[in-house]
Design goal:
heterodimer; A: mainly alpha; 11 helices; 72% helix; flat; B: 6-stranded mixed beta sheet; 4-stranded antiparallel beta sheet; 10 strands; globular
């Protein structure tokens, strides 16, 4: 009498025991850290939108003079601060991004293991760790005491903050360019400058632009370095090279610390506006990156 | 011992190149002008002596193959011929390397000018992250060619020469990175040919490719050799017999006393001689597959 063996179904699950337990613990920890990170972010966004959404609007963004704290909501807005933030951040970008990218090109393409490259890299690291208020004091002591408050002074301070970020992020991007591309270009008789300009930088440009825009977004939100450099005024200053200026983070600070409801509301509006500007920059970074990396598959 | 050697000889595969009478005639119809003349060349990476005392002459419109086990310095010698080793920190060349009568390592020689005449195709296809068109037009552009009509002409001619035109003519603006391995390697060859070099150095150009792509590249080498001088490093001995006119066999020399190794040129001759009648026992052991 033939016995037909029952085919046994293969059990391919993770075997019970310590390994499965470890896997579950790790998964749980990861989910937990995700939640821990996302909760404060969610709350910040929710609060700012809830309190600021009713304040912002076209007239809030375009009104010139920032009203005195005692005035109720709906009487003027943050136009002057938006103008100041855009002026100062743009100036800081113009100063820090080209210099930072050139510094990264020097460190990664030209300096090699040389002493100067190591010094530049080290100084960039040190600069990253300098508190932003110290940058403000630094510009105050070497510029503001001689030439007075101005948007330009604020831009210097923000530029100093952005510079190390741009250098290090660009350097990382340049490191990612495979050496085989450089060799391919050299083998066609290209000079070092050509290799850098026509192969290395185009290959890394997406990442460089993203890094630079992250630095811009970071600088746009800085308060401390501006305190000593631009003062805080309430009228629009169309000339960033002369006279005290204002910026969104400073207005958030001054309005939020006021006891008047109207001023506090305007502070929330300014906060929402600043987040929106940072958000727009991020989107722009993504779009520009996508446009540049068209050919990298 | 004798009988063992005979057995080995009987197993020796007949080099395919020798079945093609036309080609073997061309190969042995005499020597063209010497293109490279290396005398007592030693190459160092820092204090490491990678290659010792290599002397050989490479002739015009021939395909010269460098074969040998890993670490024997064949790629190092190849990279010396267009000064690619300059890019390696600490690399140094001793001895004389002449290219058409001029010393490659004399003071005042521009590595850039050297590489414009002596192009190189690498082991791993390395198309630039640009369009197929821009990849091929890259070399002419850095040499100052700006005219669109002239560039169009060069791109089409080079892609034809590299046997890639029919596959890409409708997508010249697509990324060079979207090509298959074999196509990408042919794109790199087209890119090299676009600057009309005198010599094309190839560093194991087929090692990452399947046999069909390899066959295409070998056919292409035969087609272009009337206009170029080609030096190819290969791990594949069948490939050496299929494509080359001359073969240089390199090996590793180990110094037991100091426990250092260095690459040496063991034997250099026509491909037929190297594979059918090697003079050196090391060459014989290698080409018959007894030593790897």
């Amino acid at each position: 009498m033939a016995v037909t063996a029952e085919p046994v179904k293969a059990d391919l699950r993770e075997p019970a025991g310590w390994r499965r337990t470890k896997s579950r613990i790790a998964t749980a920890l990861m989910v937990l850290s995700f939640v821990v990170v996302i909760i404060p972010l969610g709350f910040v966004l929710y609060t700012v939108i809830a309190k600021g959404a009713s304040v912002v609007g076209w007239s809030f963004w375009t009104s010139g003079t920032i009203p005195p704290n005692v005035l109720p909501l709906g009487t003027g807005g943050m136009g002057a601060a938006i103008l100041g933030t855009l002026e100062i951040t743009a100036l800081a970008t113009v100063m820090a991004v080209p210099l930072g990218v050139l510094g990264a090109v020097y460190i990664n393409e030209y300096g090699g293991k040389g002493a100067l490259a190591s010094v530049v890299r080290f100084m960039a690291d040190v600069m990253t760790g300098v508190p932003s208020i110290v940058m403000g004091l630094f510009i105050f002591s070497i510029w503001v005491v001689h030439f007075g408050f101005s948007g330009l002074a604020g831009a210097f301070a923000l530029g100093c903050l952005m510079l190390p970020i741009v250098i290090r992020s660009s350097e990382e991007m340049l490191k990612l360019v495979p050496n085989s591309l450089r060799e391919g270009s050299y083998a066609l008789g290209a000079t070092k400058a050509r290799v850098t300009l026509t192969v290395v930088l185009p290959a890394a440009i997406g990442g460089i632009v993203s890094g630079a825009l992250l630095a811009v977004a970071r600088a746009a939100g800085e308060t401390a370095p501006l305190l000593f450099c631009i003062l805080t005024v309430f009228t629009p200053n169309y000339n960033p090279f002369h006279g005290p200026d204002t910026a969104l983070p400073l207005q958030i600070f001054s309005n939020a610390s006021s006891p008047f409801v109207g001023a506090q509301g305007r502070g929330w509006g300014a906060a929402l506006t600043l987040i929106a500007i940072a958000f727009i920059l991020m989107i722009a970074a993504r779009l520009i990156t996508a446009r540049f990396v068209r050919y990298s598959r | 011992m004798d009988s063992e050697q005979n057995v080995v000889k009987a197993e020796l595969p007949k080099p395919a190149a020798l079945q093609d009478t036309q080609r073997s005639e061309a190969a042995f119809s005499g020597e063209g002008a010497p293109v490279f003349d290396a005398k007592n060349v030693s190459i160092f990476y820092g204090s490491f002596r990678a290659v010792t005392d290599v002397s050989l002459t490479i002739y015009e419109n021939e395909i010269t193959a460098f074969i040998g086990p890993s670490g024997c310095g064949k790629t190092t010698v190849l990279r010396t011929l267009n000064r690619m080793n300059d890019l390696v920190p600490g690399a140094r060349v001793d001895g004389a390397v002449d290219y058409r009568g001029a010393s490659l390592y004399a003071p005042g020689v521009s590595a850039t000018a050297v590489r414009r005449r002596i192009g190189m195709v690498f082991q791993k296809p390395n198309p630039f992250p640009k369009s197929i068109y821009d990849n091929v037009a890259y070399g002419p552009r850095i040499n100052g060619e700006r005219k669109k009509s002239r560039l169009d002409e060069i791109v089409e001619r080079s892609l034809h020469q590299a046997a890639l035109w029919d596959e890409v003519k409708n997508r010249l603006n697509a990324s060079g990175l979207g090509l298959s391995g074999g196509q990408a390697q042919r794109l790199c060859i087209a890119r090299t040919l676009a600057v009309e070099p005198d010599v094309v150095l190839m560093d194991e150009p087929c090692s990452a490719l399947d046999p069909i792509a390899t066959g295409k590249i070998e056919d292409l080498m035969h087609e272009i050799k009337s206009r170029y001088t080609i030096v190819i490093v290969t791990h594949n001995m069948q490939q050496a017999t299929r494509v080359s006119d001359r073969t240089a066999f390199y090996s590793v020399l180990r110094d037991e006393k100091s426990d250092t190794r260095t690459g040496v040129l063991v034997e250099y001759g026509t491909t037929q001689q190297i594979f059918e009648d090697p003079h050196d026992t090391r060459t014989q052991a290698y080409v018959t597959g007894r030593m790897g």
